[in-house]
Amino acid sequence: MKASVFREFGDPGVLHLEEIQKPEPGPRDLLVRIHATPVSFADRLVRNFRAVGPQQFHMPLLFWLIGRVSFGIRRPRIHVLGSEFSGEVEAVGARVRRFAPGTAVFGYCGPRMGAAAEYLCIPEDGFVARKPANLSHEEAATVPYGAMMALDLLKGLALAPGHQLLVNGASGGIGPLVLQIAKHHFGVRVTGVCSTSKADMVRALGADEVIDYTRDDFTTHDTRYDAVVDILGKSRFADVRRVLSPGGRLVFVSFKERQLLQMVRTALGGGQRVLCRVLHESQENLELARDLVEAGKIRVVVDRVFPLQEAAQAHSFAADSRRRGQVVLAVPSNGRM
Fold this sequence. Notes:
By secondary structure, the protein is of the alpha/beta class. The chain has ten helices and 15 strands. It has helices at 41-47, 61-71, 137-140, 144-157, 175-184, 199-204, 237-240, 257-267, 283-294, 311-318; strands at 2-5, 16-19, 29-38, 84-92, 104-108, 119-123, 127-130, 164-168, 189-194, 209-212, 225-230, 244-252, 273-276, 302-307, 326-330. The strands form three sheets. Strands 3, 4, 5, 6, 7, 14 and 15 form a seven-stranded mixed beta sheet that branches. A six-stranded parallel beta sheet has the order 10-9-8-11-12-13. Helix 7 (237-240) links the parallel strand 11 and strand 12 (244-252). The protein is globular and about 55 Å long.
């Protein structure tokens, strides 16, 4: 089978199309014919992980060390990227009961990756579900990870209709899904923070208010938020606390040791708190995400679709701050894209 492969760390030019062995499903596995996989932040990070030092990494040192061992020190241990996918079940193992050949599915294969290829094996009890009927494969492939993370985060915050939520980083991978699920599923009033070029997109996704961080500082506003979710760990608690409600929470999805110390310190008393969340995937949340998509509560924005053989160009475009929405690799199937 064909796959987008990298044998050394580096810029997008290390990616090339290569013929590799087609996987064989075990007794409890699905063999999925991949139709699409997005170019995620994780893909771009892993592709050049050797150049990412502890200071540049978006999580504490321990996480960086685990990543360095998992992904490779001098050369990559993983050669095919792609952690999310949408496709069709081609074959199933003898003990598989939930899926049959021909079923359209989408899912998340995690840090082992491998979806930037024609075929992928995934366990039946992995994070895989029937694809949303109202999305194309290119659109559906962008949903699993971000939606599972957003649902895990929002369930933990226990926000209710009428609460105020601000999403700092509302235009990336997880941010748009936090925004939409909070607004359309939990009934929360949502403010999205993003750059000028992404403002229209964030507004179209349902944000009640959009703040352009290049022109304005949300910490100087008069609105009081029940929660501020910071996707990339850019906020300072000293600044954000003035716009938090008395019991408000500043939630970091990406964080370093300093934020962990703030979480410990603020947990000791009442009032405003810092929370550092390590989010978790779950089959329940993947299926709920599918239902929300089919109910029209989650909208997907895809900026551009590249064929698998143009993975290097797709990675370059995905790193461009001017892009709006997701970048996706389409895997040809019998002449179709």
